[in-house]
């Protein structure tokens, strides 16, 4: 059976992701208590349902202790289990809650060590939730939705659905340092030292996927040397991540604007690794 667990920080887009999966034919359950997962899987199998998605979040946080063991048991029984964890910067989350005027799921918890009636602030709720879900995040494919539109998130969730079962999926992600380092990166490489095509007026409006920019950067010895260094680093450590049973590894490549150099490097690395690994590409500034 194909099982996709959706978790993450409240306000990061779990409902959007669950809707995408429902449209894709998954049987979807929101706010499932983790202890009921094996029973639900057995029930769905009796109904000949082969694809299911369950949202598990802070509303069930105190029941998450045994979830990693449950996931391993389901995998040992032959089920394909993936975890998608959505997160976002605190600033983005505060803005979203302000726009929707909805309260945080933890907002009604009494503040620790304070008098009765004192409630957690929104920021405190977000940080508390991050701590509660930290263990689950480590097991998951993480997506930082801070600057993503709903349409982009939908497209990225569809990419996750299409990933075939593999020991490790490499996610190459370009971003702009002027916006900030994405929260979903395992490794970050800075390519701002490379010559910037932005200052060539004939290249400014193009991206790192366009042939003139590709030819320009391929002609820079420094760009080729940096590419080789990053490639060798990734090749060296992939076996260790597979040994650690990691399902996803996100490599962030950043430049100033996220349009030329980082995009070029992501495309070049992905082209190399796609013959030996499951590879996905994301460009946060090309949406």
TrEMBL record:
This is RNase adapter RapZ. It holds the Pfam family PapZ_C. HAMAP family: RapZ_like (MF_00636). It comes from Undibacterium piscinae. It comes from the Bacteria. PANTHER family: RNASE ADAPTER PROTEIN RAPZ (PTHR30448). InterPro entries: P-loop_NTPase, RapZ-like, RapZ-like_N, RapZ_C. Residues 169-286 form the RapZ C-terminal domain. GTP binds at residues 57-60. NCBIfam families: PRK05416.1. One of its GO terms (molecular function) is GTP binding. Residues 1-160 form the RapZ-like N-terminal domain. Keywords: ATP-binding, GTP-binding, Nucleotide-binding. ATP binds at residues 8-15.
